[in-house]
Amino acid sequence: MKTLTIDLKSFCLGILALGALLVLVNFKPAGQPAPPTDEVRRYQVVTGERGVTILDTKTGRFIVDPYGFSNPRWTKGDFEEIHARPSK
User: Fold this and answer.
1) Domains of the chain: which residue ranges?
2) Is there a contact between 75 and 64 (Cβ–Cβ < 8 Å)?
3) Is the full-model pTM beyond 0.85?
4) Which carries the bigger pLDDT value, residue 27 or residue 23?
5) How many angstroms from the chain centroid is the CA of residue 76?
6) What is the mean pLDDT of residues 29-47?
7) Which of 7, 20, 66, 76 matches a 20 to 30 Å C-alpha distance to 32?
8) CB 26 within 8 Å of CB 18
9) Superkingdom of the source (predicted)?
10) How confident is the model at residue 19 (pLDDT cuts 50, 70, 90)?
């Protein structure tokens, strides 16, 4: 059976060509607009020690259910209302 041998120069050239190919495949020009928000990924759920939060990533609104209660108590909120700066 014939054995395959490759010299160091050819090996380095192959690694360099593979790296260049991967960079070109993953290249994205900066001028492209961001893709629109997909309706499938619009809502995110976060759970923690204090409760459950469901966030609407399109509008910034959320609802919170704190743990420790027998019945769910959903509280509505909005990031724009919470972080609104008072005008002087």
Assistant:
1) 8-82
2) yes
3) no
4) 23
5) 24
6) 76
7) 20
8) no
9) Bacteria
10) very high
pLDDT category at 14 given cuts 50, 70, 90 is: very high
Tokens, residue 64? 């919170």
Helix, strand or coil for residue 64? Answer: strand
For residue 8, what pLDDT is reported? Answer: 93
Residue type, 28: K
* Structural contact between residues 52 and 65, judged by C-beta atoms closer than 8 angstroms: yes
Distance between CA atoms of residues 85 and 88, nearest Å: 9
For residues 10 and 39, what is the distance between their CA atoms, to the nearest angstrom?
49
| Structure tokens given for 19 | 């790296």
| HSE-up (13 A, CA, CB side) for residue 72 | 9
Tracing tokens 């192959």 back to the chain, one arrives at 14
